[in-house]
Amino acid sequence: MQLVFASNNKNKILEIQSILPETIQILSLEDIGCHEEIPETADTIEGNAILKANYVTTNYGYDCFADDTGLEVEALNGEPGVFSARYAGEQRNSDDNMSKLLDALSNKNNRNAQFKTVIALNLKGKQHLFTGIAKGEITAKKSGNQGFGYDPIFQPIDFKETFAELSLEIKNKISHRGKATQKLIDFLKNEK
Q: How does pLDDT run across 139-171, given as a tens digit for each residue?
């Protein structure tokens, strides 16, 4: 089975392809000739995943899936949430985003947070949503050089390491994206 993954984020594509069984091959946006920036104008994580999946299906005619992820911090009323990638501005710089978040939490004792990923799958004319959540807390400083985004400051529950210190194999088992992707895989196995 071939599915378009509505992303050009090479880290995300690698992470998801490593979870998927060999029977499912991912095509990126680049692979299908989609070079435009797909608008992410929804005010929810679910909404942005749906917008991206629908864009590919409508404009390119492919069955596809798209994800959107947000980091929701309890002490900041769920921020940065849907704005996680652009938290410190449109330049979408991970270091800037982490610095802004650490500054915002500098005088807070509650550092509880969760990553939330929603995958929207458009398959055979129907849409399906899959959600994965990873709970943890924001560390006081960056640690580790694996992963991407907020991984160096997110410490999942029951671990002493941040996502950026864990191997991809372990991270995929416990992460928000890993959990949502596993739900997607379970669904696709029954679709054959």
A: 999 999 988 899 999 999 999 999 999 998 899
CA dist list (Å): 34 to 38, 57, 71, 185: 9, 11, 27, 25
- The active-site residue, picked from 31, 43, 67, 68, is 68
The number of C-alpha atoms within 13 Å of 63 and in the hemisphere containing its C-beta is 14
Domains and CATH numbers, the chain: 2-189 (3.90.950.10)
What 38-42 contacts at long range (C-beta under 8 Å, 24+ apart), as own/partner pairs, is 38/6, 40/68, 42/82
Catalytic-residue membership of 68: yes
pLDDT for res 192: 59
Residues in the chain with pLDDT values less than 50: none
23 Cα distance to chain centroid: 22
Instruction: Give the Cβ contact number of residue 65 at 10 Å.
Output: 27
pTM of this structure = 0.91
Tell me which residue has tokens 């995943």. 49
Task: Reduce the secondary structure of 60-97 to three states and give it as a string.
Answer: HCCCEEEEEEEEEEHHHCCCEECCHHHCCCCCCCHHHH
- Look up residue 67 and give its two tokens: 């994800």
Q: Is 176 helix (H, G, I), strand (E, B) or coil?
A: helix
Helices (H), the chain: 10-19, 45-60, 94-104, 168-174, 176-189
